[in-house]
Amino acid sequence: DADSDADTDLEPGAPCTVVLLTDLGSDGVWDREGVDVLDPADPERLLSSERGPLGGPPDDVWTWTWDAVGRPLHEVHEVDGVLVSQARHVYIGGGSSEALSEDLDGDGVFERLMITTWEDDGTVSRVWDYDGDQVFDRYDTLTEDEAGRLTAVMGTSDPDGQDLIYQELHQYDGPTGLSGVSFYDLDGVLPAEEMVRRTYDAAGRPLSRALSTGAPRFSTRVEDEDWSWDGGGHLVRHRTRTWGVDVSGADLNFYTDEHHTLDAEGRTVRTESELGLFLDLGPIQQTTPIATDLTLLAPADCP
């Protein structure tokens, strides 16, 4: 039952607090500040995240609750003190099924529902109710290979699997690892509309991702993304490039470039970002630098 969240929340501990200061123009003046509170049971999980103008109240707040084994229970997003979205996770049958309900517009009505079920024979299925009318709109069957990697998602409009309306196909470059190519057929009629080429390192960390559209040849590049890691497995750079058009039909291509500075413990203490517009074959047109400092507070050994 979703109302039993309080019974399964993690016991309070000594959460790590990260304070962030952001200089939106890299002009030496801090414009915004924020506070992230990390879960004492697992610092990879957030309990809350606040952002707002320097010296003022936060205007963008996220909160999360987790159960005793680290599964998400409730996610809430508020802007200027007003609820804009929320999501609840309910686990059924000892975790053999998970129901995710979403309130997408903050009106208190959970209009979208997704239920995922893991069978004893390894079969994974998923059903969707897109509009909260308590009628399932899509039935998914998920297939994995011997290594447990997702290879296909087949979505139909009927529980018998006759009317295909969506599918994903995932291929891998070798018997181990995650690098490969994925195809997304958004209407159930081949050829697929989207293709993603992805590469990972041996530790399973992402290195690059390229999204293309324009079936059947995928001639339109939509997004490129790449990550760089240091020898200790810490993220030091993240870049994206996105191609698009504005309302007039003109090219509107932009990129982001983030550099992370680490302390001796491998913790990020500064992020320098740049947002810019570019032409496919021309020079950069405009850039907006952004710098963010992160200060780690108690406990001193905050990961």
Question: Poorly predicted ranges (pLDDT <50, ≥5 residues)?
Answer: 1-12
Report the oligomer. single chain
Overall shape? globular
N- to C-terminal separation?
Answer: 33 Å
Walk me through the structure.
- This protein has 303 residues and is mainly beta.
- The chain has a domain of 58 residues.
- Helices cover 1% and strands 56% of the residues.
- It contains one helix and 20 strands.
- The chain has a 20-stranded antiparallel beta barrel.
- A hairpin with a 5-residue loop joins strand 18 and strand 19.
- The longest helix has 4 residues.
- It starts with a helix and ends in a 7-residue tail after the last strand.
- The N terminus is likely disordered.
Short description:
With about 300 residues, the protein is mainly β.
Describe the secondary-structure layout.
Blueprint (H helix, E strand, L loop, with lengths): L4 H4 L8 E7 L8 E8 L2 E12 L6 E7 L5 E8 L2 E11 L4 E7 L8 E7 L5 E6 L8 E7 L5 E7 L7 E9 L7 E6 L8 E7 L5 E8 L6 E10 L5 E8 L10 E10 L5 E11 L5 E13 L7
Short descriptors:
20 strands; 20-stranded antiparallel β-barrel; 1 helix; about 300 residues; disordered N terminus; globular
